[in-house]
Amino acid sequence: MVLSGLLSRACWTSLNYLLLIGCLLPPGTQGQEFLMRVEPKDPVLPAGVSFSVNCSVDCPHPERISLETNLLKETVGRGLGWAAFHLSNVTGDTTVLCSGFCNGSQIAGSSRVTVYRFPERVELAPLPRWQSVGRHLNLSCLVSGGVPRSHLEVVLLHGEEELGRQTVANEEPVEVMVTVLASRDDHGANFSCRTELDLRSQGLGLFQNHSAPRKLRTFGEGRDCRRWVMSCARVMVPWSRDS
Question: How many whole angstroms separate alpha carbon 234 and alpha carbon 239?
């Protein structure tokens, strides 16, 4: 019964927080004479960090500036027209909401927090023990973890040559596949895959994680290669819809 009560209060707390955001945010904020500033604005942070938020407003008589969030928070400073808070252990995307009163009217502002996390696993699936020349070779890269997925891509490689790339779907784990035509030149060649978390548009960088390479062993002369393609050059096949 105690556990049930705690869960109920937790659910109501989350629900009340969402309702509060819906009530205080636009379109109402568009008509505010004084705007509530939230800094930093829409930060992109690594998972698990702590950071500070400053709420401030320029108005003659500011009152009751507060911060609404589902994160652990601590007030670290307060003055005329501003308040600062320390938020701990950011593990997922969230929104923080600053609110207060100015000349008796309620004002609010928000900041969207985006969390990024590197993949926990990037692994090229085992290759065949022996691969026949002139036959199609399926390459599969397994990826677990990594967010935001909209900025995460998988690249399959033959040595340093890029064979193809694909944005990572939201499934967990994800398998990304590409098919190539094996040639005699591929004997002893290394195949691998890597992930690219591209946060350059967010003012950060391009973060890469590499799988261990796997060496291919081929057999056969490939005399009937022309029955497959016009030449024995490697041929890309479109990404599988099941990947």
Answer: 15
